[in-house]
């Protein structure tokens, strides 16, 4: 996905967030439900996180420079961590609103327009969340994926809140309204924790998945004809980039040009199998062989 399209998607998330917030706030005003107020409160975090995502996507796309020779891809992880923290803050705010609801004991009142507005907000945010997650995974954008997952928690909370409000109106059990707000807060809190944990893994130079590592090993073995072995394979993930480095052992008498051709062949094959791969190969003479690692076919 080119930068312009990714920026457009991030900006559109802000607009979607504002529309959904307006709908949810209207639903709260019409019903007086604490649970619906909590649902609207969580949406303000969606807007803030979408703004952070827009900034991260723009910054991560900047080319490498003298201060950041490996690029700015990790900026997206910082945004993802920020989103996670904001989710946690939203959960705490929801708990506060729920407590105030327990104290007041106020009951929401029936409003077809309010319920319809909440349903509309859930549909809008659900469609957009799926779109963000699909594009984020397809283009390996942690920030867009994180934003989409965050929005999916909003869908879950909206559906749950709506069901609870309807139940309160049917049964008259006012305690269900703030109780449901607490459940929403717990769901949101868990989502924030999972998101922070996943993002921290990226900041800590987490290795590529077992599936990606197997692809890399296979390409080295198949495309390294003329070499003897490869060892000390290492990978790390940074945004949409996968950094790959390893040692390639070749016969000591092999010309530099021939060794370089082998490296080019391996790099091209890995890059085709692993989009965004950045490969570094250290060529060594045969007496450096460890007789372990990847045997070239």
TrEMBL record:
The chain crosses the membrane at residues 7-31, 43-61, 77-95, 115-134, 155-173. The keyword Transmembrane helix applies. Residues 210-286 form the Cation efflux protein cytoplasmic domain. It holds the Pfam family Cation_efflux. It is found in: Membrane. Its main location: membrane. Residues 11-204 form the Cation efflux protein transmembrane domain. It is a multi-pass membrane protein. Keywords: Membrane, Transmembrane, Transmembrane helix, Transport. NCBIfam families: CDF. Belongs to the cation diffusion facilitator (CDF) transporter (TC 2.A.4) family. This is Cation diffusion facilitator family transporter. It comes from Roseibium salinum.
């Amino acid at each position: 996905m080119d930068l312009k399209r990714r920026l457009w998607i991030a900006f559109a998330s802000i607009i979607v967030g504002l529309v959904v917030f307006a709908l949810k706030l209207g639903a709260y005003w019409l019903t007086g439900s604490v649970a619906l107020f909590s649902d609207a409160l969580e949406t303000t975090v969606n807007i803030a996180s979408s703004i952070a995502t827009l900034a991260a996507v723009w910054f991560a796309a900047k080319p490498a420079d003298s201060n950041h020779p490996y690029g700015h891809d990790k900026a997206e992880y910082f945004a993802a961590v920020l989103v996670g923290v904001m989710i946690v803050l939203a959960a705490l705010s929801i708990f506060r609103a729920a407590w105030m609801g327990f104290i007041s004991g106020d009951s929401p009142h029936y409003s077809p327009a309010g319920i319809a507005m909440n349903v509309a907000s859930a549909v809008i945010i659900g469609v957009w969340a799926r779109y963000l997650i699909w594009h984020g995974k397809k283009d390996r954008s942690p920030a867009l994926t994180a934003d989409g997952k965050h929005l999916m928690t909003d869908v879950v909370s909206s559906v749950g809140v709506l069901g609870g409000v309807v139940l309160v109106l049917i049964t008259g059990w006012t305690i269900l309204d703030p109780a449901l707000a607490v459940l929403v807060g717990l769901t949101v809190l868990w989502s924030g924790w999972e998101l922070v944990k996943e993002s921290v893994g990226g900041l800590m130079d987490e290795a590529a998945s077992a599936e990606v590592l197997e692809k890399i090993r296979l390409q080295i073995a198949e495309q390294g004809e003329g070499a003897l072995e490869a060892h000390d394979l290492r990978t790390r993930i940074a945004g949409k980039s996968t950094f790959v480095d390893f040692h390639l052992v070749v016969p000591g008498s092999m010309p530099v040009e021939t060794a370089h051709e082998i490296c080019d062949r391996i790099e091209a094959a890995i890059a085709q199998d692993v989009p965004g791969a950045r490969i570094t190969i250290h060529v060594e003479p045969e007496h450096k062989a460890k007789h372990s690692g990847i045997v070239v076919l």
